[in-house]
Design a protein that fits this description.
Layout lengths: L3 H9 L19 E2 L14 H12 L12 H11 L6 E5 H12 L10 E6 L3 H9 L3 E6 L8 H11 L3 E5 L11 H13 L5 E5 L3 H4 L11 H4 L6 E6 L10 E5 L2 H10 L7 H11 L3 H25 L14 E5 L5 H9 L2 E2 L1 E3 L2 E8 L3 H15 L1
Parallel strand pairs: 1-10, 3-4, 3-5, 5-6, 6-7
Antiparallel strand pairs: 2-8, 7-8, 9-12, 11-12
Helix pairs in contact: 2-11, 3-11, 4-5, 4-10, 6-7, 12-14, 13-14
Length: 380
């Protein structure tokens, strides 16, 4: 009799799993890691009184008890900050869990075919991974030459494939730029005309780094797009602003949708320590977080200016940086550059589908200086 596990795996594991791989980042030790779009360390930037608030919040958590299943304190803090109702929020372990919850909820086949997820490409990889895990077909629509939405192609894909869910990350990862607001609005309008309509997800994980005097949306956000559009939802997270360890993400949507999403959310999914820390981050430590974001934005400007100065000697495509990272075009194969940076203790992110490009996260001033020094050496 053949191996029963082998027979079970062959019969039961979805065929889509064959194209997937576990996410395993480079686990080697590097003095400078600029590969994961993490913010620089937050705790060293806190004043003594701010650090005391942080420690007190964590110290008040009783580890023998399950976390609040509704995350009521955090839910209220978020609702107050965002100007929405408590019943307009689903909170989970980072954007990854929110994506899983949303796709689990909308996985019902329509018109006799598997549900479809529509995504611009390139974009956040977990849209595709989660969609395939949940049995969706994925339709990728390449971005235009300026790394913005190709509106005609997106609208055509909407009409042809009638997706259940459309993901729009703005600012986009890995390209860093914000999508044109009028293009996003046109996609939202077309999604509403479909039968059944598509849910449009405006993912604003990097929103804090976009806001400012140069913001092409002039301060408007995905929340503004929800007016009169109940099929629009907005995702955000604390992960990119110095709180990645908490794994706190959320989705804002119509209460009717939230009621369905909550059925798919696992109980006790968000740890009590994460809830407690997030509450103080949104309240008494909000000023410290804003300082941290402002420092990252300033360092981003210095990094971009330095890279553009380097371009005078040998062309570089720096792109529009609206996130806490830079989408850097080298004009040649990036593999030798990546190897050279690693040899010098600097890790950045490369992409097999875009072999001439790198994604470089904004680190501390010292980290960015070390990257620039190493980059100049390996480009020579």
């Amino acid at each position: 009799m053949s191996d029963p596990l082998a027979r079970a795996l062959a019969a039961r594991v979805p065929a889509s799993f064959s194209e997937l791989h576990p996410y395993v980042p480079d686990l080697a030790s590097f003095p400078v890691r600029l590969d994961a779009n993490e913010a620089p360390a937050l705790l060293p930037t806190l004043r003594d009184d701010e650090r005391a608030v942080w420690l007190a919040a964590l110290g008040a958590v009783e580890p023998a008890r399950y976390p609040d299943v509704r995350a009521r304190a955090l839910r209220h803090a978020l609702a107050t900050r965002l100007g929405v109702g408590d019943d307009e929020l689903t909170i989970g372990c980072g954007s990854d869990e929110i994506i899983q919850i949303l796709l689990a909820t909308f996985a019902r086949p329509a018109n006799g075919r598997a549900p479809v997820v529509l995504v611009p490409s390139p974009s956040f990889v977990m849209y595709r991974v989660s969609a395939r895990v949940h049995g969706y077909d994925v339709v990728d629509v390449p971005l235009d030459s300026a790394w913005d939405l190709d509106l005609d192609a997106m609208l055509a894909a909407l009409r042809e494939h009638r997706p259940a869910v459309v993901f729009l990350a703005t600012p986009n990862n890995p390209t860093s730029g914000v999508f044109a607001r009028d293009r996003v609005e046109a996609i939202i309008e077309e999604a509403a005309r479909l039968e059944p309509p598509a849910i449009v997800v405006v993912d604003e994980a990097y929103l804090p780094f976009r806001l400012g005097p140069q913001d092409p949306w002039q301060g408007a956000t995905g929340l503004d797009l929800r007016a009169g559009n109940p099929h629009v939802v907005v995702m955000r997270t604390l992960s990119k602003i110095g709180l990645a360890a908490l794994r706190v993400g959320w989705l804002v949507g119509d209460p009717r949708l939230i009621g369905e999403l909550e059925k798919a959310r696992l109980p006790y999914d968000l740890p009590a320590y994460s809830q407690a820390a997030a509450v103080v981050a949104l309240g008494p430590l909000a000023g410290a977080i804003e300082r941290h974001v402002a420092t990252i934005v300033e360092e981003r400007a210095r990094l971009v200016a330095a890279l553009r100065a380097m371009s005078a000697a040998a062309p570089l495509d720096v792109g529009r940086p609206d996130g806490n990272f830079v989408w850097l075009g080298l004009g040649r194969d990036s593999a030798p550059v990546v190897r050279g940076l690693k040899e010098r203790g600097v890790l950045v992110r490369s992409f097999a589908a875009f072999p001439t490009r790198l994604r470089v996260s904004v680190g501390t001033g010292a980290e960015c200086a070390r990257f620039l020094e190493a980059f100049a050496e390996v480009r020579a």
